[in-house]
Write a structure and sequence with these properties.
Layout lengths: L1 H18 L4 H22 L13 H26 L2 H7 L2 H6 L4 H7 L7 H17 L6 H27 L8 H11 L11 H10 L7 H8 L4 H27 L7
Helix pairs in contact: 2-3, 3-7, 3-8, 3-11, 8-11, 8-12
Length: 262
């Protein structure tokens, strides 16, 4: 583990040094994220009015869900998109051969090789929005609540990574996976609204099949004290299952990979 930790520090240290060559990008990215978040809040406000709620959620409570959605969108921009999006390039150009020859796990390499620090501003804005909504909703930030929220954010991160990686790994057979990734992103965008706002069949879909509820609604419910222990356990089981499936599928895909040199 020590070798992997040192490798990760070198990976991200190099990526950070590269990004710092263009410092103006950080300001541009912050402005772009701010405008995007403003547009999302404007769209969300259309569902509210005097005495109106969205699936039983008030405006301030819905802000928490939007905030957590913004956190995971920032995580996608920082980590998932620059890494998993490059798997297609490695397969198409044959550079995956060099990855497989390295004395390090290939999934670790393709998943964590780089990151885009500009996306961290979106994560920070999302956390700030979720915290503001929670404060306005009268949430008491106890250590137990904060730890549980952190655990559920980690669960959501694993689920999001696993779903994205499953699609990216299909590039071993289908070089163009961009359309499938965009479909996944569009479906994940449904998580910006409380899960109770959807009909029962969609609530089941977004909880068990494409569990976006564990990315946004469940962490907000933890803060509000609404979540049950079985639901938290279900989230951990789903995260473990999706990650195991992603790992197994990657190993299966590599057995069918035809290298550029063969």
């Amino acid at each position: 583990m020590g070798r992997y930790w040192r490798t990760l520090r070198r990976f991200w240290g190099t990526a950070l040094a590269t990004q710092l060559e263009y410092q103006a990008n950080a300001l541009i990215e912050l402005l772009a994220v701010s405008f995007s978040l403003g547009g999302s809040l404007l769209l969300l406000s259309l569902f509210f009015g005097p005495g109106r709620e969205l699936g039983g959620w008030s405006w301030n409570q819905a802000l928490m869900v939007q905030g957590f959605y913004t956190v995971f969108d920032g995580m996608s921009s920082t980590w998932l998109r620059p890494n998993l999006g490059s798997i297609v390039t490695h397969v198409r150009e044959g550079t995956l051969d060099f990855v497989l020859l390295k004395p390090i796990d290939s999934q670790f390499w393709v998943s964590l090789r780089t990151f885009t620090p500009a996306g961290l501003s979106e994560v920070a804005l999302g956390l700030g929005l979720a915290g503001w909504g929670a404060h306005q909703s009268g949430v008491v930030f106890t250590p137990a609540v904060l730890i549980t929220v952190l655990v559920m954010l980690m669960v959501g991160g694993v689920i999001l990574y696993s779903l994205w990686f499953l699609i990216a790994a299909t590039s071993i057979w289908f070089v163009k996976t961009w359309n499938a990734t965009e479909v996944l992103r569009a479906l994940l965008a449904s998580g910006r609204y409380p899960i109770e706002a959807y009909p029962a069949p969609l609530r089941l879909l977004f909880t068990l099949v494409l569990p976006v509820a564990f990315l946004t609604t469940v962490p907000a419910e933890v803060l509000l004290g609404r979540v049950s222990l079985p639901l938290l356990a279900l989230g951990m089981v789903l995260a473990t299952g999706f990650f195991t499936a992603a790992r197994a599928f990657w190993m299966f895909a590599l057995r069918h990979y035809t290298s550029a040199s063969s």
